[in-house]
């Protein structure tokens, strides 16, 4: 005998994707500021014959593109929010954008590495005064963008469950945009330090060395984002705290039961779905176990399958 129960109140319009309008609005602003600064740096590079400014301008274009991708992901997730083809909502559109943006960060780190090595091996004259002025302006723009995205980054978590998982529920799409801005800000700081070192003490080698350091920093951030987003996309959630909570609920149940199979995956920033197969006494009601599991609010879609222990359904 086998029986199952699912949430009777679950529908496709359940709160798997509530959207993040604040994050979307701030991401659009950050994209606009970054794109404007990109144009200024590229134009200044041509006018002042500064390869440093040109390189930084094209480098910033990759971040403007990534921010645009993040904004498009929010719009797509909102547009398809009620499309029944997405059985668990459209949240993973944002996660996919975050993963793609992380790949762009890897590319940025690679370009920074190559350019820095080229400049280290073949130094070029630098227009320090112009480069410093534009670098400082670029840093101010980066800080403004970081402030915009940080606000949503810290307030755009899941549903505020009281189980201590909030740290795992951040908006990966917003996090990727935030990292792009931080990467640009870090690059600007390193560039300004290098430019002052070259202008004041003649340390021309500082510029490419700082570029190498920036490439390493961006690569580390990209690796972390790839890991987090990839984990969600591949449903690698069996180490999430909610999995142990499910096991604890079943172990503490007055009705003796043993988990024979368990699948947990994420369907929102702080929302999980689960399928639990239990070996228990004949006639046990799956609805009873489902009600026990509902104490954990992050479980928004629960399926319980009952296998009769007397029938030897499970080894």
From TrEMBL:
<feature type="transmembrane region" description="Helical">
    <location>
        <begin position="209"/>
        <end position="226"/>
    </location>
</feature>
<feature type="transmembrane region" description="Helical">
    <location>
        <begin position="29"/>
        <end position="48"/>
    </location>
</feature>
<protein>
    <submittedName>
        <fullName>Cation transporter</fullName>
    </submittedName>
</protein>
<dbReference type="GO" id="GO:0016020">
    <property type="term" value="C:membrane"/>
</dbReference>
<dbReference type="InterPro" id="IPR058533">
    <property type="entry name" value="Cation_efflux_TM"/>
</dbReference>
<feature type="transmembrane region" description="Helical">
    <location>
        <begin position="177"/>
        <end position="197"/>
    </location>
</feature>
<feature type="transmembrane region" description="Helical">
    <location>
        <begin position="60"/>
        <end position="81"/>
    </location>
</feature>
<feature type="transmembrane region" description="Helical">
    <location>
        <begin position="93"/>
        <end position="111"/>
    </location>
</feature>
<feature type="transmembrane region" description="Helical">
    <location>
        <begin position="131"/>
        <end position="149"/>
    </location>
</feature>
<dbReference type="InterPro" id="IPR002524">
    <property type="entry name" value="Cation_efflux"/>
</dbReference>
<keyword id="KW-0472">Membrane</keyword>
<feature type="domain" description="Cation efflux protein transmembrane">
    <location>
        <begin position="31"/>
        <end position="234"/>
    </location>
</feature>
<dbReference type="InterPro" id="IPR045316">
    <property type="entry name" value="Msc2-like"/>
</dbReference>
<keyword id="KW-0406">Ion transport</keyword>
<keyword id="KW-0813">Transport</keyword>
<dbReference type="GO" id="GO:0005385">
    <property type="term" value="F:zinc ion transmembrane transporter activity"/>
</dbReference>
<keyword id="KW-1133">Transmembrane helix</keyword>
<dbReference type="Pfam" id="PF01545">
    <property type="entry name" value="Cation_efflux"/>
</dbReference>
<dbReference type="GO" id="GO:0006882">
    <property type="term" value="P:intracellular zinc ion homeostasis"/>
</dbReference>
<dbReference type="InterPro" id="IPR027469">
    <property type="entry name" value="Cation_efflux_TMD_sf"/>
</dbReference>
<keyword id="KW-0812">Transmembrane</keyword>
């Amino acid at each position: 005998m086998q029986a199952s129960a699912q949430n009777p109140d679950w529908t496709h319009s359940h709160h798997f994707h509530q959207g993040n309008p604040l994050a979307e609005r701030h991401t659009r602003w950050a994209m606009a500021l970054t794109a404007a600064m990109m144009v200024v740096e590229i134009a200044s590079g041509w006018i002042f014959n500064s390869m440093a400014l040109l390189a930084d301008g094209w480098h910033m274009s990759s971040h403007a593109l990534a921010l645009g991708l993040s904004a498009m992901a929010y719009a797509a997730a909102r547009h398809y929010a009620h499309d029944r083809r997405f059985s668990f909502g459209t949240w993973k559109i944002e996660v996919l954008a975050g993963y793609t943006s992380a790949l762009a960060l890897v590319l940025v780190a690679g370009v920074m590495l190559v350019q820095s090595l080229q400049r280290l091996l073949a130094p070029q004259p630098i227009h320090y005064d112009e480069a410093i002025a534009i670098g400082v302006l670029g840093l101010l723009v980066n800080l403004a963008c970081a402030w915009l995205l940080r606000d949503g980054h810290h307030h755009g978590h899941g549903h505020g469950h009281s189980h201590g998982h909030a740290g795992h529920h951040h908006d990966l799409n917003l996090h990727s945009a935030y990292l792009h801005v931080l990467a640009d800000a870090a690059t600007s700081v390193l560039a300004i330090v290098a430019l002052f070192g070259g202008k004041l003490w003649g340390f021309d080698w500082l510029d490419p060395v700082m570029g190498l350091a920036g490439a390493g920093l961006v690569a580390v951030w990209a690796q972390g984002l790839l890991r987090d987003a990839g984990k969600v996309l591949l449903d690698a959630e069996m180490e999430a705290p909610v999995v142990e909570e499910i096991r604890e609920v079943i172990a503490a149940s007055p009705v003796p039961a043993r988990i024979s199979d368990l699948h947990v995956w994420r369907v929102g920033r702080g929302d999980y779905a689960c399928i639990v197969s239990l070996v228990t006494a004949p006639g046990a009601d799956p609805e009873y176990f489902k009600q026990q599991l509902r104490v954990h609010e992050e479980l928004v879609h629960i399926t319980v399958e009952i296998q009769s222990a007397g029938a030897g359904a499970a080894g």
